[in-house]
């Protein structure tokens, strides 16, 4: 992924005023501190369905608590979301139609129809959008993808992302994660990276979900490459296993582990987002249109079950 070069930042009044919708663990651990610390951004407002959680995050980062989403949207330049996909679909649409730039969690929505409406609204409003696909902003991922595209001749690939997150205290009470498991949580990350490495996914050949939330999926990619992914949030894995590999005319190329921490990846994401807004750029490798493509693949996986 070609990184955008942030413009030279001006005084504080030129910082993007950002509001955060959501106050769960990920919002408090990654979204809020990175937004508060970035030189191109000022975290000004927080809203969540649980006012006490919003107050706790806002208090830590010198932000105010908005009475409702409409109030937050009215007082910012951009909105960052850390909420379940069905909630994000509705609120992000409100933000975009109000002319606000958006930082969107993955998956972008819960259905393809919702994703189409949101992607179309982003295009119509001419705002910047970016998905929190944090692994795409890791330097090792960018270097791996760049090398693959330079080499070409890829025939296939494999990915594994095996975790016990659904067994943890943090995610054990997350209703949407318990229902949909790995497909909606880590699935967008895995699908996005295999799609970026081997070319656009054109067909879901097969998909299964077994015990322990263990998914196995087979894809066909544009150009004829094939890939398989295995993922789970219900296996007692410590540490989490994350492995990506591809192979073809130039042998075997792997991307093991997650060397760059998520918070550093999020800061790199903000670098790109700030640069997009200041330059008037509305396209990015992981923008709302990318979110729509991933939603279509996810929907096709569901249809195969």
UniProtKB/TrEMBL annotation:
The UniProt record lists the keyword Transferase: no
Limits of the GFO/IDH/MocA-like oxidoreductase domain: 172-251
Pfam families: GFO_IDH_MocA, GFO_IDH_MocA_C3
InterPro entries attached to this UniProt entry: Gfo/Idh/MocA-like_OxRdtase_N, Gfo/Idh/MocA_oxidrdct_glycsds, GFO_IDH_MocA-like_dom, NAD(P)-bd_dom_sf
Top-level division of the source organism's lineage: Bacteria
Sorted UniProt keywords: Oxidoreductase
GO molecular function: nucleotide binding; oxidoreductase activity
Start and end residues of each Gfo/Idh/MocA-like oxidoreductase N-terminal domain: 16-128
Transmembrane segments: none
Gene3D superfamilies for this protein: Dihydrodipicolinate Reductase, domain 2, NAD(P)-binding Rossmann-like Domain
Descriptive protein name: Putative dehydrogenase
